[in-house]
Design a protein that fits this description.
alpha+beta; Alpha-Beta Plaits; five-stranded antiparallel sheet; three-stranded antiparallel sheet
Length: 235
């Protein structure tokens, strides 16, 4: 082989080796790039999954906080409604006990009984019927009734809380007039029953304004105190 051929063959081998090395390096780099790309996708997938879980957790917390806020709001509303109801009940008890003065529409009854046929029981029926119909305050012959008031008999006379009443009996009741009248005049009710007595008559009229004064000499309540004695007293 001539020197020229040897040189050409050497150059060929050199270029072949260099080409092989370049191709190998390119493939290695491509594989590395693919690995890097795959690794980035996995990391992003993991990150997205983590963020999604965190978002779900935060969403659950927001939902729970909203539910708690709604429950608190309902609780506060229930407390407010309960307080209003308690105040209304207290106001009603004050009226029934005559602790406060009151005024408003109502009805006025005049029971004429010249033969003194009516007794404490009949007047008690009249008052009870008015209370059942929603009367908030009742006055009999100028005396306001309380929850402790009671009718009695003294001979042929009717008494109220120990005070003798004189006929005709005047009964005033504060409340919704139409409701009170309907309750009193319905068939089989108090007024038809009373008018079944000889010479007994009842007149009932609406009043736009009635006034019930505050009761005097209200009872004084004494609160009980816990016993200072230890044990059950045995020994």
């Amino acid at each position: 082989m001539s020197a020229r051929s040897k040189t050409a063959w050497g150059l060929f081998l050199t270029f072949a080796v260099l080409g092989f090395m370049l191709v190998t390096q390119a493939r290695v780099q491509e594989n590395r790039n693919r690995q890097l790309d795959l690794q980035t996708v996995e990391e992003l997938t993991t990150l997205v999954g983590t963020l999604s879980q965190e978002n779900d957790r935060l969403q659950e917390e927001v939902t729970e906080l909203r539910l708690l806020a709604v429950e608190d709001r309902f609780t506060e509303q229930d407390r407010a409604d309960s307080l209003v109801e308690q105040e209304r009940t207290l106001a009603g008890l004050r009226l029934l006990n005559g602790v406060v003065e009151s005024s408003g529409p109502g009805v006025r009854l005049e029971l004429r009984d010249p033969l003194r046929e009516l007794h404490a029981y009949e007047l008690g029926q009249v008052v009870n019927e008015l209370k059942s119909a929603g009367a908030e305050a009742i006055i009999v012959n100028g005396r306001r009734l309380s929850v402790r008031s009671a009718f009695g008999n003294f001979g042929e006379r009717v008494t109220l809380d120990g005070v003798v009443l004189t006929a005709p009996y005047e009964v005033e009741a504060l409340g919704e007039p139409d409701t009170l009248i309907s309750s009193m005049v319905m068939a089989g009710g108090v007024i038809p029953t009373l008018e079944g007595r000889p010479r007994v008559s009842v007149e009932i009229v609406k009043r736009q304004e009635l006034r019930a004064t505050r009761l005097e000499n209200l009872p004084t309540y004494v609160l009980a105190a816990p016993s200072r004695e230890d044990g059950d007293g045995a020994g």
